[in-house]
Write a structure and sequence with these properties.
single chain; 2 domains; 8-stranded antiparallel sheet; alpha+beta; Rossmann fold
Length: 407
Amino acid sequence: MGDHTDTSGDEARLLRTRLVGSLRSNGVIRTEAVEAAMLAVPRHRFVPEAPLHIAYADDVYVTKRDSDGEALSSASQPSIVAEMLEQLDVRPGHRVLEIGAGTGYNAALLDSMVGPRGSVTTVDIDADTVRRARKALDEVGGERVRVVQGDGQLGCADGAPYDRLIATVGTWDLPPAWWDQLVDGGRLVAPLSIRGCEHSVAFDHVDGVMRSRSIVSCGFMPMRGLGSQEGRTVELSEGRIMTFHVEHEVGADGARGALDGRGMTAWTGVQLNQNEDATQLSLWLACAFVGYGRMSAPFGDHGLQRLLMRWANPAVVEGEDFAYLVCRRTRSGTEIGVRGHGPSGAALAARVAAEVREWDTECRDGVNLQLTAYRRGHAFDEAARFTVPKRHTALAIQVVPVNAELH
C-alpha cells in the first residue's frame, strides 16, 4: 500500500474521523475496506486551497471552472465517493481503471484498497487536471498510481484487462472500449444518464452482457470528448428561475414558458413515506417517457403545488404539453401528484399519473429495477419492461426481486 500517512496534525485527523464516522452511521460506508481507505487518505491534501472544515464537509468542491463559470473539475461529495466504492467492491490485488482523475483523491482511495499487488490507472482529458492529480498523489505517497491524459471513452488499453472500471464523470453510454478492457466477471460502476435521469449503476460483466447489481441516484459533471452528449435547458416561466433539462434529441420547445399558462393536477393516491427515496420512481418514468427530463427550482419557487424534488424533479414534455411531479402532505406521508400544462396537458398528466401508479404496484416492497446493457446488435430479452436505445448499447429494464441472483 502506498504511504498515504496524514502529516497535517490533529485537526485534520479529527475532522476526517468525524466525516467517516458520520458516513458509517448513516449506512453509506458499509465495509471495513472503504472505511479504512477513507480514514487513511487525507482528502484535504487533494484540495489544499480549501479550509480544513470545507475539505472534510460532505459536499462537492469545485476545483476548476471555464470562462463562463461552469464547473470543469471537482472533488466529488464524500458520500457519493464512498457509495460508489461500495458498489465497486475493490479487493486487494485488483487492477482498476478510473475514468476522470479529478483531484486524484479517488485514485488514492483505490490505491489504498488494491494494495501493492494491485494497480490503479486514472485517465483524464484535461491536462491541468492530470498535472494536479499527479502532484497531489506524489505528495501523499501515491506514486504507484498511473495518471494518463487521454479521452476516457477510449479507456486505457495499456494495462488492460482490468478487474474493475469506475467512471467519476457522467456518461450517456457504455463505450466499446470499456467492454473490451474489462475482464469477464469484472465490475463497472458509472454515473449513467437515461433520458437525463442520472444514476450510479454497478454492472457485472458476465458472458458479454452487463447486468446491474445496484443503482444509486447521483449527479456528475458530464464526460467531455468523444463521449460527450450535450443536453438542452429551457426556461419554464418568464422571470422565474425554473428550468427543464433534457437530452439533446428531445424537442423541448413545448416546455418553454409552460408554467405561465393554466394547468391542472391529477392526484395519484400513491404515498411516499417520510424520507423515502424516490430514485426508482425517477428511473421508471425516465424509461417510460421519451420526453423525460429534469425540472429544477433552485430557490424554492414551486408554483401552485410543491415539487416532489427541488432538484432533478421528474417532468415530461410532448409537443406543446408539459407535466411534472408535485406532492402534498397527508396524515400518512406525502401523496404524489402530476400537474399538466398545455393543450393536452391534462391527458399527459393522466398518463404520467398512471405510470406512477404502475410503479407503485410493480416496483415497491422487495422489488427493484434491474438494468441489463447489451452491445448494439446483440439480441436482448424481449420480456423487458422497458427498452432504451443508446449509441453503442441497448438497455433492457426489468422488475426483479431485491438481491436477485444474476442469470
